[in-house]
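Hi Y.,

Following your request, here is the sequence exactly as I used it, all 140 residues.
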Amino acid sequence: MEIGDRSQEPGARIKRESASSFQDLIVWQKAHQLVLYVYRFSSSFPKTETYGLVSQLRRASVSVPANIAEGFKKKGLADKVRFFNIAQGSLEECRSTYLILANDLEYGDSRELMINLEEVSKLLDSYTAKIEQRKYSPDS
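Below is the corresponding structure, written out as tokens. Let me know if you'd prefer a different format.
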């Protein structure tokens, strides 16, 4: 997902400008926003969860934009994809364990967070697929 200028002509391809920083990536921006949501959501958890569920959920959520940023800077395509895969794993860790558990323990309604998490996951899948296409592109 790179910054792009939309052409006025119907059916015209979108001209894309390369991202100069990981912060230019929509997927990183959405992942960073997810972290902020996770921090707000988990701030009302019981104090007994400070070093348990709160810590684990926050650590896993922070891992997502961190790995996107690290992958962005890697030179090799395989390295890039590896870091994006790690980010995807951290998203799944948040979803399949911590947010479901928080919901089951009635610490809060995690549905909105799950929607945001799913959006980041889809963006990351798309971005990773685009990177993987470069392996097979004669223009890469």
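Strands lie at 4-5, 15-16.

Thanks again,
Q.
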